[in-house]
Amino acid sequence: MSQGSTDQLERDAVKKAQSPHFGIGIIATGEHNEALFRTVLRATRADFTTLVVPDGLDTEAKQLVRQLGGTVVETIERQGEENPRQLLVDAAESRSLDGIALCEAGDEIDFEACQDALVSPSTYAITAPTQPNESSTERLVGIPAYNESVGIGSTILAAQQVADEVVVIDDGSSDNTVAIARETEATVLEHEENKGKGYALQTFLTYARTTEYETFVILDGDGQHLPTEIPAVAEPVEEEEADLVVGSRYLEDSPTETPFHRRFGQQVLDVLTLGSSGRKLSDTQSGFRAFSPTAVDRLSIRTDGMGVESEMIGNAIENDLEIEEVPIDVRYEGIDGQTFNPLRHGLSVATFILKMIRDRHPLMFFGLPGIMFTVAGIALGVDAVLLYNSQGAFAAGQTLVSIFLTIIGVLGVFCGLVLNRMSNMISELKEVR
Fold it and tell me: Where are the transmembrane segments (predicted)?
């Protein structure tokens, strides 16, 4: 590193050390936990030190405050009757903060105004200025979760910033996922046992159909997806340009840190999904998606497992829904990771996609292999005849294999033709209805 670069880093460090650092002090009563967690998250992101007097908070709520970057100012018994505002001021001074803005849980804090007010050297503690509670667009966000206690809290709270309602579909978790979700005051729909992601999304769509929201979004609860990108993913739906929007990690100029083995497996699944749906997409396995009310009404998911993303695309195409992709970012570093082994996950999805190809495109599923077997059988048979004519040697084994492959191939083509006709007839009957 050059001397000039070193000097610049030192100047930046000194400047940062000299910059005032302020705090937000919150008096928590246990009555507005959702607003409390939201304020802690926003204050941390705005680079404030967040101090919370936990009057009425239970252990799980305190734990979530800490996970979101806040500091719980525990009171001891002799301090029980002290003014909580003074406790926050004392805690700020003990941490050498340059000022603190005080508020109660439920207040919508204007952080820029706090920063401006605290800059005044004559004022150490102020009452935090508030701002009107701006209503978000009519969005419902769904988060399917299975043992996601590590990342579910921050994901919900960030999503609540850009949604009218967040619903967590807990798929039989055995950890604290449900308890943490309830602390954020999100709507929680519970499965008594683990039934799979597909079943969780079925539950979400069923719930969504009972609401009157204009946009519906789903994302994973492990922290891989960034809830701040919800508006970008939802925009094509809100602009009435698409019915189903897929957040893609692999569009041009879309940054990604997907490990190579994951990306390779996803490309294989992309190709298989292309075969089942006929639509080429760059990221068919993305769990970050937005839906229009039309899509919510028309989509019919049958699978319980992890092949739901591919089935959803095929089902959308069958129902003439407009599909669009938008670029998203994704995080893998520091994330607890998916519940299932990647190889097992990939094989289960691939198996499901092959079943979809069999059911929706039987001529492709049976006919193409049938043609390949038939050609191979005929080629072996011709070679056996040529061998007999040139050398007088009868290749019994090769001849039997030739006959076997030819019969299997012809049967495959025949089955493909018959099943394809039956599939077309069923589709025609559906259109008549």
Answer: 363-388, 400-420
